[in-house]
């Protein structure tokens, strides 16, 4: 039997606690435990009207035995439930839960890690020094930040942005052939190992309109992107492009590749969220552990109102379990 998964509870003022409870109540998931916040989860479930009994456990190994009857929550970390009212105490709880859950995964006491949404700004106020949870988890794994690759995945699309949280004006300067090659290789290996795709096909997006129109609308395609595609192909990877970005995500185009390598954040995330918002998962590739997260934020404005959809949280847990099972086989 596979080890249980562990869920970092995220910011207690956001939608994470209620969606974790809703995910357990769906009764379709492999065993998981939450890294703290038994009172918090119980209050969030009650606020939403979910029948979700909570069982406090002292060790992650207890999760499997109790999961069918109650949501297992590790004892020790606690926080009040104030939906839509983010504060420093809540951010400190979120950081403690993330630290606990990541440690369990790194020590191989959990089959995989799922992280609920946090507020990066509030985390910074309580001493969090990383750009986001991805970089925190990468550091805990001893993985260089450039090798922790963000894959956004849904039922209809998988995308990886080469550059991520930088200003759009910075993208042309920061986009390099080496970065495209590095992320392309990590993506191809993960599609084989973690998603069971025997011969992955990767479409590489252009940066400029019409993929540069032979230099008339920009030269990055010729100078930066095409050499990277050639290097990937020389290494046996089925990479194609540069593909004009406006044509890359049509239904017919999507049939021709398994994942798209995009040049910047919104080029990747806009189509993913347009197609698969309620089932979109952020999966970190290149790590020694399995890590997923629902591809949405804290949604403080709707927390506690019963409006948040649990689909992405459920999908993140399912994906973590599926990847863990493939790695164990």
Q: Which key features would you list for this structure?
A:
10-stranded mixed β-sheet, alpha/beta, Isopropylmalate Dehydrogenase, 2 domains, two-stranded parallel sheet
Please summarize what this structure is.
By secondary structure, this protein is α/β, with parallel strands linked by helices.
Write structural notes for this entry:
There is one protein chain. The chain is α/β, with parallel strands linked by helices and 329 residues long. A hairpin with a 4-residue loop joins strand 6 (149-153) and strand 7 (158-161). It is globular, with a radius of gyration of 20 Å. It starts with a strand and ends with a helix. The mean pLDDT is 95. It has twelve helices and twelve strands. The chain folds into two domains: 5-143 and 287-328, 3-Layer(aba) Sandwich (Isopropylmalate Dehydrogenase), CATH 3.40.718.10; 149-273, Isopropylmalate Dehydrogenase (3-Layer(aba) Sandwich). The strands form two sheets. Strands 2-1-5-12-11-6-7-10-8-9 form a ten-stranded mixed β-sheet, sandwiched between helices. A two-stranded parallel ribbon has the order 3-4.
Average pLDDT, rounded to a whole number, is: 95
User: Count the strands?
Assistant: 12
Name the CATH superfamily assignment of the largest domain: Isopropylmalate Dehydrogenase
What structural class do you assign from the helix and strand content?
Answer: alpha/beta
SSE order in H/E notation?
A: EHEHEHEHEHHEEHHEHEHEHEEH
Number of domains: 2
- The CATH topology of the largest domain comes to Isopropylmalate Dehydrogenase
Number of helices: 12
Strand order of the largest sheet: 2-1-5-12-11-6-7-10-8-9
| Low-confidence region ranges | none
């Amino acid at each position: 039997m596979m080890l249980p998964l562990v869920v970092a509870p995220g910011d207690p003022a956001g939608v994470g606690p209620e969606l974790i409870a809703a995910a357990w109540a769906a009764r379709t998931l492999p065993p998981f435990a939450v890294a703290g916040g038994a009172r918090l989860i119980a209050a969030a479930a009650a606020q939403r009207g979910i029948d979700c009994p909570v069982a406090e456990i002292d060790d992650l190994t207890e999760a499997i035995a109790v999961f069918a009857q109650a949501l297992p929550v590790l004892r020790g970390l606690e926080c009040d439930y104030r939906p839509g009212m983010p504060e420093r105490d809540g951010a400190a709880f979120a950081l403690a839960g993330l630290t606990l859950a990541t440690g369990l995964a790194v020590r191989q006491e959990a089959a995989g890690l799922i992280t609920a949404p946090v507020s990066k700004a509030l985390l910074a106020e309580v001493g969090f020094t990383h750009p986001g949870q991805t970089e925190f988890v990468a550091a805990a794994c001893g993985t260089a930040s450039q090798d922790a690759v963000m894959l956004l995945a849904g039922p209809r699309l998988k995308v990886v942005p080469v550059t991520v949280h930088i200003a759009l004006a910075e993208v042309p300067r920061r986009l390099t052939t080496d970065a495209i090659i590095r992320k392309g290789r990590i993506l191809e290996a993960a599609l084989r190992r973690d998603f069971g795709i025997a011969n992955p096909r990767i479409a590489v997006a252009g940066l400029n309109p019409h993929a540069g129109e032979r230099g008339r609308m920009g030269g990055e395609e010729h100078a930066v992107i095409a050499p990277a595609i050639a290097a990937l192909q020389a290494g046996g990877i089925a990479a194609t492009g540069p593909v004009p970005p406006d044509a890359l995500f049509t239904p017919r185009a999507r049939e021709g590749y398994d994942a798209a390598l995009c040049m910047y954040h919104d080029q990747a995330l806009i189509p993913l969220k347009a197609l698969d918002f309620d089932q979109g998962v952020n999966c970190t590739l290149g790590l020694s552990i399995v890590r997923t997260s629902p591809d949405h934020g804290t949604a403080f404005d709707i927390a506690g109102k019963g409006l948040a959809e649990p689909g992405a949280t459920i999908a993140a847990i399912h994906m973590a379990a599926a990847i863990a099972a493939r790695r164990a086989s």
